[in-house]
């Protein structure tokens, strides 16, 4: 497939492709971090008890 293309062009194409893949991985990583809602800063115990209290209050009011 690449036999008809000179070696210098092949090298340039491979470097460009590696760069594109690198930026795709970086963008995907950034998107995944945003999707996870900053997990390191969240306190799961407090969130659990807050949700539990809301559910109990909702059930009592119903």
Number of separate structural domains: 1
Mean pLDDT: 86
Helical/strand content category? mainly alpha
**Count of distinct strands:** 0
The amount of helix comes to: over 70%
Radius of gyration: 25 Å
Question: Low-confidence runs (pLDDT<50, min 5 residues)?
Answer: none
Shape call = rod-shaped
**Number of helices, counting only DSSP H or I runs of 4 residues or more:** 2
Specify the biggest β-sheet.
none
Strand content: under 5%
* CA(first)-CA(last) distance: 70 Å
What string gives the helices and strands in order?
HH
Transmembrane segments: 12-29
Biased composition (Basic and acidic residues): 43-62
Keywords: Membrane, Transmembrane, Transmembrane helix
Region (Disordered): 34-62
Question: Notable features of this structure?
Answer:
single chain, 62 residues, mainly alpha, 2 helices, 0% strand, rod-shaped, membrane
Outline of the structure:
The chain is an all-alpha fold and 62 residues long. It has two helices and no strands. The relative contact order is 0.06.
